[in-house]
Amino acid sequence: MGNLHLNSGHIQDFEVEQVAEESGHIAAVVTIYTDRENAKYRVSNDDRHPDLGRIVTDLKAGLQAAKDTDADLKINEYSERMYLFVTYPNGKTEQYTGLRVQI
Questions:
Q1: pLDDT in tens, 42-77
Q2: Strand pairing partners for 14?
Q3: I want to staple 43 with a disulfide (CB 3.0 to 4.6 A). Which of 47, 76, 98, 103 is the partner?
Q4: How many other CB atoms are found less than 10 A from the CB of residue 82?
Q5: Helices within the chain (DSSP H only)
Q6: Cβ-Cβ contacts under 8 Å for 78 (sequence gap 6 or more)
Q7: What's the number of domains the chain is made of?
Q8: What 3-state class would DSSP assign to 80?
Q9: Does residue 67 sit in helix, strand or coil?
Q10: Which residues of 50-76 are buried (b: 16+ CB within 10 A; e: fewer)?
């Protein structure tokens, strides 16, 4: 079982879904459940990653790979700029516009 390095916990389960916000903007909400704590993020598309559907697909695939294997998924937060740096199990790192939200 792979680790989420945010809290070095084993990924038990996760949810990645597109949601419509009050403003009408569509964003992805990522909730990760581990044996230590849970984390929730709001991710939106931007110029770097204009296709929110692709972001959702990539996050689901990366989280599933980490859950099913000994591979790791790392999330580094740069909250001052609302960036999330996600390093996928294959070693590729993507920068997304996003932030941690309260569960």
A1: 999 999 999 999 999 999 999 999 999 988 999 999
A2: 32
A3: 98
A4: 14
A5: 52-68
A6: 84, 85
A7: 1
A8: helix
A9: helix
A10: eebeebbebbbebbbbbbeeebbbebe
